Amino acid sequence: MSDILGLEGKVAIVTGAGGGIGRGIALEMAKAGAKVVINDIGVSLGGEGGSASPAEETKAMIEAGGGQAAISTDSVSDWESAQKIVQCALDTFGQVDVVVNNAGILRDTIFHKMDPADWRAVVDVHLNGSFYVSRAAAEPFRQQMSGAFVHMTSTSGLIGNFGQANYSAAKLGIVGLSKSIALDMERFGVRSNCIAPFAWSRMTGSIQAKTPEEAERIERLKQMTPETNAPLAVFLASDAAKEVTGQIFAARLNELFLFNQTRPIRSVHKAEGWTPEAIAERALPAFKASLTPLGRSGDVFSWDPV
Q1: Is the pTM of this model over 0.85?
Q2: Active-site residue numbers?
């Protein structure tokens, strides 16, 4: 691993690192020379249960490769608990340099049938969890005048998807959180970026094929293994990305994407002000060609990964 990354001896917290994308990132961090705090509570995809086994497996893999790791089984979805995750890094390794907010659960339901409990559970882990862990790390980052946050957003939030109002809202909220961190902490040398990962994992493994063509496509999608997202996460955490902050990226097998961000694209002016009728008669026709079509992530990323 090239020393251009500057991660040798640094300490990285990776939440949800007991498997999938998080495990891939934790292993790649260790490969780059970082000491890793593996945070995972070992719950099901829906957030039920709990076990230290997934984190222990990741730790064993890191140590087998000659790396150093510690385990935190504290939940990201509670403020006091999230502080313990950061304290684990400080107690074990004496510092914290990188936070990767990857932990997540899914409770997919079509919007008009979504239970408020399922809304709260998903928002608590993804959005609140990203805030809690980031906020806990903000003080040591500020004191040492350096640090990097890598947050996981999703094309479900950036673009849209069916049955994921809770997940989509949380993931788009993470984009706003990341941008605010980037703005507020730039003067302390702290960076914050987002990744929209593509991976065949337990988060997507529930997709069912109804036709032979869909089954064939799923087999191609399975090539997007979780660890294909890890190089981008490690890069964004590294010194090689010291000038990159407030951005949104995606990794899709062998493709990398940089996303645009919300900015005005058309404007109309009426000196005497607007009425609802004038908006209908003059503004709407001017805007109509530039309206964003309603679509899902799969409509935008319509080609198979290669």
Answers
A1: yes
A2: 167
DSSP code per residue over the chain: --GGG--TT-EEEEETTTSHHHHHHHHHHHHTT-EEEEE-----TTS----SHHHHHHHHHHHHTT--EEEE---TTSHHHHHHHHHHHHHHHS---EEEE-------B-GGG--HHHHHHHHIIIIIHHHHHHHHHHHHHHHHT-EEEEEE--HHHHT--TTBHHHHHHHHHHHHHHHHHHHHHGGGTEEEEEEEE---STTTTT----SHHHHHHHHHHTTS-GGGGHHHHHHHHSGGGTT--S-EEEEETTEEEE------------TT---HHHIIIIIHHHHGGGPPPP--HHHHS-SPP-
What is the span of the domain harbouring residue 213? 3-261
Q: Is residue 23 part of a domain?
A: yes
Phi and psi, residue 194, nearest 5°: -120, 150
Alpha carbon distance 88, 235 (integer Å): 24
pLDDT, tens digit, for every residue of 136-151? 999 999 999 999 999 9
- Count CB-CB contacts under 10 A for residue 162: 13
Residue 296 inside a domain? The answer is no
In this predicted structure, the answer to whether residue 152 has a pLDDT above a threshold of 50 is yes
CATH number, domain with residue 154: 3.40.50.720
Within a domain: 152: yes
| pLDDT (mean) for 24-53 | 85
How far apart CA 108 and CA 171 sit, in angstroms, is 14
Tens of pLDDT along 189-224?
999 999 999 987 554 555 555 677 666 666 766 778
Has residue 301 been placed in a domain?
no
- Laid out side by side, the sheet with 190-197 consists of 69-72, 35-39, 11-15, 98-101, 147-152, 190-197, 248-252, 255-258
Q: Please state the domain count of the chain.
A: 1
CB 278 within 8 A of CB 270: yes
